Amino acid sequence: MPFGCISARTEKTYNCFSDITDKYELGQLLCAKEFCEICLAREMQTDRLFVCKKFMKKDGRKVRRAAKNEIMILKMVNHPNILQLIDTFETKKEFYIIQELATGGDVFDWILEQGYYSEKDASNVIRQVLEAVSYLHSLRIVHRNLKLENLMYYNQNNHSKVVLRDFYLSCFESGEITEPCGTPEYLAPEVVSRHRYGRPVDCWAVGVVMYILLSGNPPFYDENEEENSESHNRKIFRKILVGEYEFDSPYWDVISASAKDLVSRLMEMDQEQRITAQEALGHIWISGNAASETNLKDGVCAQIEKNFAKAKWRKAIRVTTFMQRLRAPESSTECLPVTPRSSMSVSHEVTVEACPPSPAPSPSPCSLQGALRSPRRLMETAVSEGHVAGCKEHGGP
């Protein structure tokens, strides 16, 4: 055999766990999410605090793919409204992702804690989300899981920036995308119908977020079913497929016409006609002075408490939902009012949330650093005080 035909197989090199612990001090488990476990990490050299996500390879192909996907996307992006990647490690058994730590809490809690809340405040949130989405779309990245639960305030300052997180479902719009995934109430009609889709699905989701921020209600809902039931999701999907939402009185009576216009353009049924993120940034409600300064605090907060804060979406829908097309049982008489192509069931990877009785402020970096040196205190401090929004599903062992 000619010498040139001989090739040496290079084996994949892995990090040792000591590579991580030599650089970071890891705290005890804060929570478990759809694909990963989350803890705090303190960088030894600088004393800075970060979030560490751990993906267990033994948990299956979907988990391994989610970890690789998030790492690949985060290595590409650099935007002030996206939580930045700090470090990654891959051992033989796990993937570790070290990211910036956002301590300002989620948008739900922020609204509930405000003494005054207006369209101007909602416009500021949506503007920042659109800037992040427009940036992602310029790279042909589709987030695919935009929702209020994935929006956080970077810190506790009054004028803190909003940051976007969780990119494990993101993908590149490099070909035809038909795989349905996301959270039911935020899905665009083209996803529900299992048609080809792309970046416009993110704009639809921004429209759903904006609708909730202005009224405290979801645009598509079913009050008669458990949120994690198949029947509930089928009813939600029916409404999405026909665009069945309204600007209900009295919740929308004081909302400006320009706000309603932008919601309608973001939630345009035809994805080809839907407004883009970049176009939405030029809308008068975002870039002009059309957003009202009327105080919406009482009405919006009452509806948020009713619809979200007391367990509905925060309990069952803070999950990633994978829709799988299944043949309907022969005994079933109920089906979606669409072509057979859209018949589907919904399976959830559900996490149970242990919500504190009321929102509490985030601990200071000093208290978190002290907690890192005491693992049990870390868990109690971070979970009970909710410093990492979205990390209240369940605590460590």
From TrEMBL:
Compartments where located: Cytoplasmic vesicle membrane
Cofactor requirements of the protein: Ca(2+)
Swiss-Prot/TrEMBL keywords: Calmodulin-binding, Cytoplasmic vesicle, Membrane
Tree of life domain: Eukaryota
Protein name: CaM kinase-like vesicle-associated protein
Organism: Leptobrachium leishanense
InterPro entries assigned to the protein according to its UniProt record, in alphabetical order: Kinase-like_dom_sf, Prot_kinase_dom
Any Pfam family the entry gives: Pkinase
Leader sequence segment: none
Protein kinase domain residues: 24-286
Similarity comment: family membership: Belongs to the protein kinase superfamily. CAMK Ser/Thr protein kinase family.
Description of how the protein assembles with itself and partners: Interacts with calmodulin, in the presence of calcium.
PANTHER family: SERINE/THREONINE-PROTEIN KINASE (PTHR24347)
Gene3D superfamilies the record matches: Phosphorylase Kinase, domain 1, Transferase(Phosphotransferase) domain 1
Cellular component terms per the entry's GO annotation: cytoplasmic vesicle membrane; synapse
SUPFAM superfamilies: Protein kinase-like (PK-like)
GO molecular function, one term: calmodulin binding
Bilayer topology term: Peripheral membrane protein
